[in-house]
Specification:
By secondary structure, the chain is α+β, with helices and mostly antiparallel strands. The protein is built from 4 helices and 5 strands. A 5-stranded antiparallel sheet has the order 2-3-1-4-5.
C-alpha cells in the first residue's frame, strides 16, 4: 500500500455514477415494488453501502477507511429505459474515497441485476465512473455531474 502517513487528514468526498439499462417492462416492475425477490431499491441501497464499507477487502492495496457517510440513490429514466445509480462517500482522512463510491455504485447495479434477472437477463450495467471528488492535496475535481443521461457516442 502507498504510505499516506505524511498526508494531512482532510474531509474527502467522492461521487460516482452508473446505470443499468433494461426493458421498459422491467423498469415498471422495479418501480411498482412487485418484483418477486422484494424491494429492489432497498436491497441495492444496502448492498451498495455495505460494499463501500468493505472496499479495502475487495480491491488489493486499498486502504481501510473510516467512512463518515455513504449514500446510494436511484433515478428511474424512462428514456433509457433504466435506472441511474449515484453513490456518495465521505470521510475525514488521509486518502480519498473514490474507490468506495465506485464500489458502492458497482455493487448496487449488480444487486439491481440480481433482483430483476428472472424477468430480464438482457439488462446491461454501463458507464460506471467517478463524477466528482473533493479534499486532499489534489483538490476538487468534477467531470460534470448528470452527464450519464446523454453519454458521448462510443
Amino acid at each position: 500500500m502507498v504510505d499516506v502517513s505524511a498526508k494531512a487528514a482532510t474531509q474527502r468526498v467522492a461521487v460516482a455514477e452508473g446505470r443499468i439499462v433494461m426493458r421498459a417492462e422491467t423498469l415498471r416492475l422495479a418501480l411498482s415494488g412487485d418484483a418477486k425477490k422484494g424491494d429492489v431499491f432497498g436491497a441495492a441501497r444496502i448492498a451498495g453501502i455495505m460494499a463501500a464499507k468493505k472496499t479495502h477487502e475487495l480491491i488489493p492495496l486499498c486502504h481501510p477507511l473510516l467512512l463518515t457517510k455513504v449514500s446510494v440513490d436511484f433515478e428511474a429514466d424512462a428514456a433509457l429505459p433504466g435506472i441511474l445509480v449515484r453513490a456518495r462517500a465521505k470521510t475525514l482522512g488521509q486518502t480519498g474515497v473514490e474507490m468506495e463510491a465506485l464500489t458502492a455504485v458497482s455493487v448496487a447495479c449488480l444487486t439491481l441485476y440480481d433482483m430483476l434477472k428472472a424477468v430480464d437477463r438482457a439488462m446491461r450495467i454501463e458507464a460506471i465512473r467517478l463524477t466528482e471528488k473533493s479534499g486532499g492535496k489534489s483538490g476538487d475535481w468534477t467531470s460534470g455531474a448528470g452527464a450519464l443521461k446523454d453519454p458521448p457516442p462510443a
